[in-house]
Amino acid sequence: MNEVFLDTETTGLSFRDGHKIVEIACIETKDLVATGKVFHKLLNPKRSMPEEAFKVHGFSQDFLNDKETFGQVADEFLNFIKDKKIIIHNASFDLSFLDGELGFIQKEKINKKLVIDSLEIARNKFPGTSNSLDALCKRFNIDLSRRTKHNALLDCELLREVYINLLDVREPKFNLSNNVSELNINKAKDYNKTIFKISDDDLKKHKEFLKSELKKNFY
Fold first, then answer.
1. Which of 29, 33, 100, 186 could pair with 15 in a Cys bridge, judged by C-beta atoms 3.0 to 4.6 Å apart?
2. Spatial separation of the C-alpha atoms in residues 138 and 129, rounded to whole Å
3. Could you tell me which residues come within 8 angstroms of residue 83 by beta carbon, excluding any fewer than 6 positions away?
4. In 11-50, at which residue ranges do the beta strands (DSSP E only) sit?
5. Which is the catalytic residue, given 40, 57, 150, 206?
6. Which residue range is the domain that position 62 belongs to?
7. 71-90 pLDDT, tens digit each
8. Total number of domains in the chain
9. pLDDT at 44 over 60
10. Do residues 183 and 153 touch, judged by C-beta distance below 8 A?
11. Domain with 143 in it: what CATH number?
């Protein structure tokens, strides 16, 4: 089963208070190696943008006015995550918005059995310390220089690197361009082809190791 690293940006902290998703991003991996498949959408929330939210992600109401609504991209999003493990940092936050948006347009909600919350893993591994995405990146010496604002697509890639470190599974870093919203999928595929030249026997051993790690951490 492939994995999806997922993140959202919103107009506020609670869907119940009328806030909406303004950005949603997913990066697909296979055995935690990027496949090059990405889902990334900026969304028109059909409401005003609070100043506090604008300071976090930098998306203004005017900038989002010509973007698609969640309802317009919902089927594409659901097809992208279908039958995949979904890895989210602080999953309860993102799922509350996603389930709210899906429920509003009468779509089936996300299967919680497929969701892995990396925040819970981090809290179990490092109790009593900050386990925000920023804090974990600093703990694992992951470059945060590109993260001047919250950006769902960039945060998905940072989360992938954090998650690999949480599971103690090391592999070369995936190098996104500075403009992460314009990720070049073909270059991503070429990168993986260049780096991961392993034998069938090594690949089999790698998959068996990942399965044992996942079972140990999640089941």
1. 100
2. 13
3. 1, 114
4. 21-30, 33-42
5. 150
6. 3-218
7. 999 999 999 999 999 999 99
8. 1
9. yes
10. yes
11. 3.30.420.10
